[in-house]
Glucokinase (Mucilaginibacter gossypiicola), 314 residues
Amino acid sequence: MSLQHKNNYVISADIGGTHITAAVIDLEKKMIIEGTRTRVNVDSQGTATEILESWSAALIQAYEKSGSPVQRVGLAMPGPFDYQNGISLIKDLHKYEAIYGLNIKLYLSEVLGIEAADILFRNDAEAFLQGEVVAGAGTGFRKVIGITLGTGFGSALSVDGIVTDLSLGSRPHQDSIADDYFSTRWFLRRYHEITGLSATGVSGLILTSKHSAVVRSIFDEFTVNLSLFLKDIFLNEKPDTLVIGGNIAKASGMFLDELGNRLTSHFKGLKIKLAVLGEDAALMGAAASFDNGLRLDILPSADDILRRDLFIRY
């Protein structure tokens, strides 16, 4: 995959807890090249080799589908992560612990034959919100908070189109951190605590919702917890819009109306919107790291990230 010249194309990828989605983006036209979308399942609790080979396979497949030379890569990556140097700092989050401390940038550079300087990483929630602000649910609003509800709890803030990571998932909540309460594993754990039964995902719980008062009560509890948590955040940030994405947002019929009622009772005029671009939002946001001229010198260092994460957790 050795390439000789720069062009407008970027291989972009959104790395989730169970899969990676990749595609080739045309930065000049601000669009995904049709036919290049590639999805590969990933065992986030697998070995480092299994994880990295799944990621590189998706990137290579997207590239091969494009039919055009590409020599830049942008990745939307969950944190904590040293985005400047491309080193994973994820641990104690039940995912990707096998790649802790590994330099993903150098690995991908060697495998793909792309200069390390042409591989950029961006927080996944930040990339998601960037995409939604540019071409989705957040378009036209000055101050937007975006949250992603899935295998983790992602969050970002957009002010006049400038998007930054909020890292709300690491903030204290009840007896742990927010990530433990506003993610898929909380639903599965709570369902097991109440019923003694196991479920494979939130979608499985939804299928039983019409027949299960327990599932409805779990969503009610989730809604109360999330509204109280966001209330404290909104008192400081005062956003005009909240954009909600992630796989749990697909179950919005179970919580969105009540969440809206609770938040708008405190914040008059607040707009609450579901994300509209799906995975395309993070793909566009990751590629935009090049388009926006993302300055690596102002990104936090690994020490900064670890200090912040430890401070927030403890």
Q: What stands out?
A: Confidence is low (pLDDT under 50) at residues 1-5, 293-314. The chain has nine helices and 15 strands. The domain at 137-276 is CATH 3.30.420.40 (Nucleotidyltransferase; domain 5). The radius of gyration is 19 Å.
